[in-house]
Amino acid sequence: MNMDFKRKLAIPMEVKEMYPLTGTMSAIKEERDAEIRKIFSGRSDKLLLIIGPCSADNEISVMDYLERLAGIQEKVKDKILIVPRVYTNKPRTTGDGYKGLLHQPNPEDKPDMFKGIIATRKLHMRVIRDTGLTSADEMLYPENYKYLDDLLSYVAIGARSVEDQQHRLTASGMEVPAGMKNPTSGDYTVMMNSIHAAQHSHTFIYRGWEATSQGNPYAHAILRGFTNSRGEHRPNYHYEDIVRLCDAYEERPALKNPAVIIDTNHENSGKDPLQQPRILKEVLTNRRYNDRVRRIVKGFMVESYIEDGRQDVNGGCYGKSITDACLGWDKSERLIYEIAEEL
To answer: In the chain, N or C terminus with fewer CB closer than 10 Å?
Structure first.
């Protein structure tokens, strides 16, 4: 192979022994996991809000943001369950650009995967310790999930990964909800097939082991918009789109816990993060209008950071995204309170 194999990385068990959870951290995660499962099973009417930066690019500013978020969670806890977006590895359409904390703990330095594994675990641990929240992350590399499986309360499978067999089978072995995004083409069938695969048991190779999964009954859909054949952004958060998803679930009665999370950014917003509040409120209105929509829409994803917009890696603006543009803190705080008032 035309590769330079630099070093053998520590296995997940070794990293967990180096950076173990405390009993308090484990108890927080267990309690929040149970509450999230209640939302997806319909035993709780709370709304799930997965919100935070496009990428967790800087521990100081990310924790500043999350500590603010934790203060709001306490005020809206009767209506909204907040799961912070702490995305530590980023898919890149062309393979170029910043790939996240896992690759580059310092965005201006060269990639260092071992440092990235440690930095990623330490950041997710700090979220629990300092805020009492537990995080969502994207599963870009299925084989890396074991480094974080005792920390995460929600996992997203991205639009470019949702058709991949290893992502689907790994999701089938998770004990937390796994959101399967519609692919960039917008094809519902691909997404529904992924949910079906993730909800069933499989035997497959995982990290050199023959493994058998039990199936994940909380695997579900994420609608994030799509790109048409001309390369144009097209949304799929409108009333008709969600009703079509309800129909798709009804055509597959074996699927458990029908659910969708609406991603308010990406193609749904045309990559304009300032549109996210409008999109979210439209869906809330449609939930009130149609009981099928209300039952299936369990929550939202919002890309949010301290400052509006985005910048280049060396831009120098504190709390501003270096990947996709985000909604700033003031607008995000106002949005969360407005959601609580509408529920």
So the answer is: N
What does R_g of the chain's alpha carbons equal in angstroms? Answer: 19
CA distances from 98 to 82, 91, 105, 106 (A): 27, 9, 10, 10
User: Hey, what CATH topology would domain 12-342 get?
Assistant: TIM Barrel (3.20.20)
Predicted TM-score of the model (pTM): 0.96
Q: What is the 3-state secondary structure (H, E, C) of the chain?
A: CCCCCCCCCCCHHHHHHHCCCCHHHHHHHHHHHHHHHHHHHCCCCCEEEEEECCCCCCHHHHHHHHHHHHHHHHHHCCCEEEEEECCCCCCCCCCCCCCCCCCCCCCCCCCCHHHHHHHHHHHHHHHHHHHCCCCEEECCCHHHHHHCCCCCCEEEECCCCCCCHHHHHHHCCCCCCEEEECCCCCCHHHHHHHHHHHCCCCEEEECCEEEECCCCCCCEEEECCEECCCCCEECCCCHHHHHHHHHHHHCCCCCCCCCEEEECCHHHHCCCHHHHHHHHHHHHHHHHHCHHHHHHEEEEEEEECCCCEECCCCCCCCCCECCCCEECHHHHHHHHHHHHHHC
All residue ranges of the chain with pLDDT < 50 are: none
The structural domains of the chain, with segments of one domain joined by +, span: 12-342
